[in-house]
Amino acid sequence: MSAAFVEGTRVPVTSVKAGPCVVTQVKNMENDGYWAVQLGFGSRRIKNLTKPLQGHLKEVIKDKKPPRYIKEIRLDKEPSLKVGDVVSLKDIFRKGDVVSITSTSKGKGFAGTVKRWDFAGGPKTHGQSDRQRAPGSIGQGTTPGRVLKGKKMAGRMGTDTVTIKGLRVVDISPEGNTMLVSGSIAGSVNSLLIIKKISAGSLEELVEEAPVVEMQQEEEEEAKTGEAKTEEVKEEKTNES
User: Fold this and answer.
1) Which is nearest to 75 in space by CA: 34, 116, 104?
2) Of 70, 71, 80, 134, which is least packed with CB atoms within 10 Å of its CB?
3) Contact call for residues 3 and 13 (beta carbons, < 8 A)
4) How far apart, in whole angstroms, are the C-alpha atoms of residue 24 and residue 236?
5) What percent of the chain has pLDDT above 70?
6) Nearest partner of 161 among 102, 73, 74, 100, judged by Cα
7) Domain 2-108+160-206 sits in CATH 3.30.160.810
8) Which of 42, 18, 40, 39 has its CA nearest to residue 27?
9) What distances in angstroms separate CA 137 from CA 16, 37, 65, 151, one per listed residue?
10) End-to-end CA separation in angstroms for the chain
11) Is 212 a residue whose pLDDT tops 60?
């Protein structure tokens, strides 16, 4: 993460490398029952590919390395892309666009109920010594006589699919295929992201009014009131004289 300035307003941003993505497969309504485009991102050695995957990517890896990640994107209509076409950053995104980003959150290992589900724990008084972070009762006795499914208990925390909506594209660098997105994104460094454009927009909503202007207005008003008071004092002195 870093920070950027939009018309004098400091905005926390996340630097994301988006693309270029190569089209590895195009699915149509006749053969597959839906429209979709399969995109490949990154690169890896061809010796690490299985033979079936090499045959699937034979039209893509003629002159370049095979992609590391492959993801299918469903569409509502027939795409104009073909196998081997390259989708770059500037073809889709513009400054101010509203996007949603899906990623896998960081894995935090085995966690208790206090950290995982924000449980309050037991009381800290009445001789409580080793049960402060215990979950307490997890069910009833006779009815239903078992622990219900979905009960919040201790377990593995993290590695969840998280989608953050309402983020805005602050800046775009087509040369390095990087973009600055407002706010933070779930996941660790070098993790795979799925960026979806929701709508076009502007950066005006990120601009905040500086409180310095209000302070200047207050100072000006105080200065005016002070000048008025000094004039009243001068008039009183002249009247007394």
Assistant:
1) 34
2) 80
3) yes
4) 89
5) 88
6) 102
7) yes
8) 39
9) 45, 50, 56, 11
10) 70
11) no
**Residue 100: Cβ-neighbour burial (10 angstroms; 0-12, 13-18, 19+):** middle
- What is the average pLDDT across 204-212? 75
Q: Are 44 and 7 in contact (CB under 8 A)?
A: no
SS3 annotation, 85-140: CEECHHHCCCCCCEEEEEEECCCCEEECHHHHHCCCCCCCCCCCCCCCCCCCCCCC
pLDDT, tens digit, 9 for 90 and up, residues 164-197:
999 999 999 988 889 999 999 999 998 999 999 9
Q: Do the Cβ atoms of 89 and 195 come closer than 8 Å?
A: no
Query: Is pTM beyond 0.85 here?
Result: no
Sheet of 21-27: strands edge to edge? 69-75, 35-41, 21-27, 86-87
Spatial neighbors of 7 by CB under 8 A, at least 6 apart, are 203, 207
* Amino acid occupying residue 140: Q
How far apart CA 108 and CA 160 sit, in angstroms, is 11
pLDDT for 234 equals: 62
User: For 189, which DSSP code?
Assistant: T
Between CA 91 and CA 101 the distance in angstroms is: 18
Q: Are 180 and 13 in contact (CB under 8 A)?
A: yes
